[in-house]
Amino acid sequence: MTHAADNRTTTGSLKDSPAVKAAKTAVAAAPAARAALGLAGIVQAAFAFLAFWDLAHRDSRQVTGPKPLWIPVILVNWIGPAAYFLFGIKR
Question: Which residues are in the Cardiolipin synthase N-terminal domain (predicted)?
């Protein structure tokens, strides 16, 4: 009894795979797109840093819920710091 996987050839299969093509496309991305992604990453990191800084320096009575709860929340990209600034600070 033979399986379909036993009958396939491996010659050239890796070279033509969609994953390899996607990787080549990502590497060959336009410099402007790469710069925009880099800038977005820097802004996201700064946003998270500011949320952590604010959490560390804010009195616990001014924070909704326990302060340690907000640490993993802030680690969620974009959504975490925004949630902290919108819902974590008592106004």
Answer: 47-88
Torsion-angle region of 57 (φ positive above 0: left; ψ -120 to 50: alpha; else: beta): alpha
What are the start-end ranges of the E strands in 11-62?
none
What's the whole-model pTM score? Answer: 0.66
Residue 85's contacts (CB-CB under 8 Å, 6 or more residues apart) are: 51, 54
Burial class of residue 50 in the structure, from the number of CB atoms within 10 Å of its CB (0-12 exposed, 13-18 middle, 19+ buried):
middle
Is the dihedral angle over the CA atoms 59, 63, 65, 71 positive or is it negative? Answer: negative
What length is written for the chain?
A: 91
Domain boundaries, the chain: 4-88
